[in-house]
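G., the chain you wanted modeled:
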Amino acid sequence: MPEVAYLLDQASNVATFVIDTAGPVNTIGQQFVTDLEKSSARAVRDGVLGVLIVSGKKKSFLDGANLKEILAGATPQIARQIVQRYQDSLAFLAKCPFPVVAALDGQTALGGGFELLLWACDHVFSSPGSRMGLPEVSVGLFPAGGGTQTLKRVVGFKTAVDMITTARVGGVDAFANSGVFTICAASEMKSRAIRWIEQNQGIVNRNYDPNYEEPDSSSPEDKQVLLNRVRFRYTISPYRPYLVAAIDALEAGLSLPFEEAVRKEVDLFVPLLFHENSRNKIDLFFLVTSLGPKLVRVDPSKAVNVDKLAVIGSGLMGQGIAQVAADKGIKTTLIDIDEAKVKASLKTMTDTLEELVSRGRWSQARKDSVLANLSWTTEYSDLKDVPLVIECVFEDLGLKRKILAQVQAVNPNAVFASNTSTIPMSEISAGAKKPEQVVGMHYFSPVPLMPLLEVIQGPVSSKAAVATAVTAGRAMGKTIILVGDGPGFYTSRTFGNFVMNGIRLAELGVSPWDVDLLALQVGFPQGPLHIYGTTGGSVIYHASSFMAQRFPGRMNIPATLARLYEADYVGAGKPCFYLDSRKMTRDESVLQHIVRVEGCPVPTDQEAKDVLLLGMVNEAFWCLSDGVIKDYFSMDLGAVLGIGFPDCWHGPARYVSLKGVSDVKARLEELVAKFNMPALRPAPEFDRLIACGLESSLI
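Predicted structure as tokens:
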């Protein structure tokens, strides 16, 4: 079967291209391009009135390049030929002497698939629910199928820059006012597409029409200013070459003719396929999509079917968990003892969903479905037949035990999942009627956007309880790591180390704002002191105090942290280190509360970067030594997807593989000795690896 089938309707003289490649989603490989070329050439020979492109798959129109095929034994020369050939196939179809239209029925068009719509198609018909975008930078690449030059002709330059550099994927509603996309019922699409073809004979593809006006009327000078600003923001770290390439390609379009600008994409794209940091991101993508779902193996026959669940606690975390569950069709009850609070939370959720609809991110039908799946209560008796209860109140052991007892009093067989970020399951379940029903389901904020779920298996958690938590988490669309019990588990323990080391660097004499800048330079999305202000000093102080009690001598509380807490620098979003939400204006008043460490030199920039990055790496390996994290794959997934470890390094295990185990250990020992930082004492796992002769290739 061809991957682009050719069907000619004799009555209308319109040819239909049906995309149906091997695999669960349509992807662009060599066979696809060959078949697209053949179908396009045949349409020209047949003298068709126009072409209608559709998909043979239910959910996927065309979802980008088959990266495994491109990378399999590829040399730069072969990679260039592959990318160039796809561009040529789109250019040929765009220049054909007839209109080209696509029809999507609630399907996805991503990467090269979206570029087919942007370059080769004169118009697109879609039913509500279709999603599209250019997410290439999320896998270490950038759009090289014409996307940097064609998207701006549909949405305008500013929006195109934002979509490309942030990898934003949106609903078709976002393109409804472009004049290129028409949203209609699926039952109408074919007839409307044929009618559009009949009415637009002789149309010139907008990418080759010198009279076509982009939606954005800003001047070339204004566009250059925008690019300069974006370049400054996204090139702070030298380890993100794909963002530099994307901006360079966008900039090329300001001065080069269209056909030269798209060729520039190829020049910039090919080297990325062989760049260390881009390959790290590509490999991470494969880990998430291919291996990630297989990392946690549970017996599905032991899992309870979760067609409904309850969320206890109606704060931001509770709202997020409830929204995600309801969005996946799970009947969800939000419970809070304060009726006014739970009603206010539902109002907030409704307002948030309405905002998503108004911005074209969600369809009205999706919002209505979520709200229909949500209910609320203040009575625990209403949970008597719920198979899964997720608790997400604040970190208070006594309160969590009280809630567990109340739930098990009315529903002892329910799986009780705590969203705690630090308290071990062994302590929460102590004294419970059925401790084997207790597990951890640690979500990350904001829950609808963060892909990770950390499932914690307590010392007496039953296989059925764990299987239920894992199965429910997957049903909610989360990537899951399964970890062992212990204070802070894996992610909170490792993340806390990053924040504490940032404060320690300030105590050693590094400017707090330089600490954050150095974190960005090494690849972190945010600096540790930025995080302190946005998370809330009170939360961080109490979590750090908890961890210091459990790891005495190694995880000590910086004196500055206590001083900040005493001085009331505690609220999330409250000025601390920065005076504005964009973190642009320094809060100099905080300097009076920093306790300077005497007897140690001020770290150099490189030493500070190593403290931040190796500190997180080392703690991840401590978690492996302690049996909390189970394997290197889970280590890297959890660090990147949950706590912001720089994805350009793939994760802690890959970073150590690249730098060498002995060199990493030696550097940690040097930092411990020079700056008296016991938290950086090398993990025992490094000694085990060295003894086994393993220096690299851990993952």
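The chain has a mean pLDDT of 95.

Shout if anything looks off.
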